[in-house]
Amino acid sequence: MAKRSLLAAIADEDSVTGLLLAGVGQVSNEPGKETNFITVVPGKTTVEQVEDAFENFTAERDDIAILLINQHIADLIRYKVDNYTNAFPAILEIPSKDHPYDPEKDSILKKVRRLFGE
């Protein structure tokens, strides 16, 4: 399989379901690359599990091109998202059904503003 060919998702149940229905899901028997998504369930999924998934998708896997993460979930690990500097995988914060998108929190927009001196 070509390197950097998959999307990954760290998202709530509705977002993951929509992405899977769109054909983004991947399941493998290869150790460490079992799936390319994690469903975050409030009260059941810990911050440590979200951090582990983020580390797995960004540092350990070489087949992920873009990581989609719900912005409210990115807020749980904001320090990791904001300190991530690699070009690949690209991290895109997306809204969810219950949490609207706030451009003031988006790590990519913050970096762009710093580049332009805003």
Automatic annotation (TrEMBL):
GO CC terms: fungal-type vacuole membrane; vacuolar proton-transporting V-type ATPase, V1 domain
Subunit structure: V-ATPase is a heteromultimeric enzyme made up of two complexes: the ATP-hydrolytic V1 complex and the proton translocation V0 complex. V-ATPase is a heteromultimeric enzyme composed of a peripheral catalytic V1 complex (components A to H) attached to an integral membrane V0 proton pore complex (components: a, c, c', c'', d, e, f and VOA1).
Pfam families found in the cross-reference section: ATP-synt_F (PF01990)
Organism of derivation: Scheffersomyces stipitis (strain ATCC 58785 / CBS 6054 / NBRC 10063 / NRRL Y-11545)
Annotated GO MF terms: hydrolase activity; proton-transporting ATPase activity, rotational mechanism
Keyword set, alphabetical order: Hydrogen ion transport, Hydrolase, Ion transport, Membrane, Transport, Vacuole
Localisation per UniProt entry: Vacuole membrane
Bilayer topology: Peripheral membrane protein
Family from the record: Belongs to the V-ATPase F subunit family.
Function: Subunit of the V1 complex of vacuolar(H+)-ATPase (V-ATPase), a multisubunit enzyme composed of a peripheral complex (V1) that hydrolyzes ATP and a membrane integral complex (V0) that translocates protons. V-ATPase is responsible for acidifying and maintaining the pH of intracellular compartments.
InterPro entries per record: ATPase_V1-cplx_f_g_su, ATPase_V1-cplx_fsu_euk, ATPase_V1_fsu_sf
Protein name, entry field: V-type proton ATPase subunit F
